């Protein structure tokens, strides 16, 4: 058997044995497209369009303002929060949904700093997603703290060395570029030994792999609604505040929705009890209800099983890259060990941008991160091994034929 035939046989066998394969029907994906960018914008769940039509025409169009009561719009941020909570190991009453991840990062970091007054340091993963670093810097300035940006591997040692000087640390279990997964337990424990709080950014973890915030003893966490949670472009983000921190949670944005009695407001702000104090203003209801419908793609899905399939897909992708692409200037960046891998694979090639453009033109959608990473995310709810193989063989065809050359020069798209 040729290597290609061997890979095709392996893909067929793995897909035939895949007991999650029928979950693909829960998505409306265009035919003939291999979608490996669900880590940037999750695919459209089939449950969303009918719910949005109902929300638009009946709820907004007909029932108008009554919908706040009759369709429980008012309760949606906490109700959808609990639905997200089920995917991240959070018991009910600890998650609120609304606003962007950037805004929720600001809220979580500010509140964490206020929960640890008198401590002069804020620590952040140096290689974190830019918005996370920028917001950490702003929160540090607002509170006159020193910001320490360090490689992820050095965060625990910094906590041990600085001890009670650290107010909070911001980190992510999954690196957004390389897909490297770090066990959040070790850093959580190191922070707690120092008496500091950890803010976890779950953007590339929520819905992609089991996260057990309560069991972890996590303090605060945020994450994105439009990546693996499939809530649609600009879907609201989530904020987790552990029960034990809620009474002391001093929200930097004291909007009326977080007041103890939003419809009988007092002259001064009095926060609501529980996670409701993490509400701010009127939420983006259409997006929030789209996210609620989207989350039904996880109904009855065992996240451990989903994780096993995701690892099978990313492992197979790495094998395909070894066999098909190593001779053509590609190197793999994502760790080989399953326990160190999120749900995406990054390949390095100096012509990454042009290659991704050429792939997209052939119906294989991934993305790139400057300067030289090709990123392939797998949402195991709908991706198959055959698709992974098609992506890698298409990439080899492109590079062998030089079909990406036209994209090497000229104007790049705004979003890469
Ligand atoms: C996607 C992502 C964000 C996005 O923030 P927005 O405010 O939604 O644009 C932030 N942080 C990380 C780590 C991400 O992966």
Describe the structure.
This protein is α/β, with parallel strands linked by helices and about 425 residues long. The chain folds into two domains: about 5-45 and about 300-410, Aspartate Aminotransferase, domain 1, CATH 3.90.1150; about 75-300, 3-Layer(aba) Sandwich (Aspartate Aminotransferase, domain 2), CATH 3.40.640.10. Helices cover about 40% and strands about 10% of the residues. It contains 14 helices and 13 strands. It has helices at about 5-15, 50-65, 65-70, 75-85, 100-115, 130-140, 155-160, 185-195, 215, 245, 285-295, 305-325, 350-360, 385-400; strands at about 35, 95, 120-125, 145-150, 165-170, 195-200, 220-225, 240, 330, 345-350, 365, 365-370, 375. The strands form three sheets. It has a seven-stranded mixed sheet with strand order 2-8-7-6-5-3-4, with helices on both faces. β5, α8 and β6 (about 195-200) form a beta-alpha-beta unit. α1 packs antiparallel against α14 (about 385-400) and α2 (about 50-65) packs antiparallel against α11. The two termini are about 40 Å apart. The mean pLDDT is about 95. Pyridoxal-5'-phosphate binds next to α5 and α6.
What's the helix and strand layout?
Blueprint: H1 3-16, E1 34-35, H2 48-63, H3 67-70, H4 76-85, E2 95-97, H5 101-115, E3 121-125, H6 130-142, E4 146-150, H7 155-162, E5 166-171, H8 184-193, E6 197-201, H9 213-216, E7 220-223, E8 238-241, H10 243-246, H11 285-294, H12 303-325, E9 331-332, E10 344-348, H13 352-361, E11 364-365, E12 367-369, E13 373-377, H14 385-401
Parallel strand pairs: 1-11, 3-4, 3-5, 5-6, 6-7
Antiparallel strand pairs: 2-8, 7-8, 9-10, 10-13, 12-13
Helix pairs in contact: 1-12, 1-14, 2-11, 4-11, 5-6, 7-8, 12-14
The protein binds pyridoxal-5'-phosphate.
């Amino acid at each position: 058997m040729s290597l290609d035939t061997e890979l095709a046989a392996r893909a067929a066998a793995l897909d035939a044995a895949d007991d999650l394969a029928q979950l693909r029907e829960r998505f409306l994906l265009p035919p003939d497209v291999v979608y490996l960018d669900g880590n940037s914008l999750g695919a459209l769940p089939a449950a969303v369009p009918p719910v949005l039509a109902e929300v638009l025409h009946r709820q907004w169009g007909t029932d108008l303002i009554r919908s706040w009561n009759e369709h429980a719009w008012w309760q949606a941020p906490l109700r959808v929060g609990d639905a997200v909570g089920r995917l991240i190991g959070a018991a009910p009453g600890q998650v609120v949904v609304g606003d962007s991840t950037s805004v929720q990062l600001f809220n979580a970091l500010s509140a964490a700093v206020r929960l640890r007054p008198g401590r002069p340091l804020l620590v952040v993963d140096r290689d974190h997603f830019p918005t996370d670093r920028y917001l950490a810097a702003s929160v540090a300035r607002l509170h006159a703290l020193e910001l320490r940006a360090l490689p992820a591997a050095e965060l625990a040692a910094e906590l041990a060395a600085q001890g009670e000087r650290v107010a909070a640390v911001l980190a992510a279990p999954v690196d957004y570029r390389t897909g490297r997964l770090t066990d959040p337990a070790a850093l959580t424990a190191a922070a707690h030994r120092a008496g500091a709080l950890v803010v976890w950014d779950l953007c590339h973890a929520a819905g992609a792999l089991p996260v057990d915030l309560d069991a972890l003893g996590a303090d605060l966490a945020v994450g994105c609604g439009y990546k693996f949670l499939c809530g649609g472009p600009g879907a609201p983000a989530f904020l987790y505040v552990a029960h034990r921190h809620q009474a002391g949670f001093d929200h930097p944005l004291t909007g009326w929705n977080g007041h103890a009695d939003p419809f009988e407001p007092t002259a001064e702000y009095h926060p609501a009890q529980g996670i409701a104090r993490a509400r701010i203003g009127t939420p983006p209801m259409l997006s929030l209800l789209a996210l609620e419908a989207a989350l039904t793609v996880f109904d009855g899905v065992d996240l451990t099983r989903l994780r096993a399939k995701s690892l099978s897909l990313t492992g197979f992708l790495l094998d395909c890259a070894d066999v098909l692409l190593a001779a053509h200037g590609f190197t793999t960046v994502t760790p080989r060990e399953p326990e160190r891998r999120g749900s995406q694979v990054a390949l390095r090639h100096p012509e990454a941008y042009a290659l991704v453009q050429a792939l997209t033109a052939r119906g294989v959608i991934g993305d790139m991160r400057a300067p030289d990473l090709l990123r392939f995310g797998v949402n195991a709810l709908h991706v198959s091994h055959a698709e992974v193989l098609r992506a890698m063989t298409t990439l080899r065809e492109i590079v062998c034929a030089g079909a990406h050359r036209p994209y090497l020069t000229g104007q790049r798209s705004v979003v890469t």
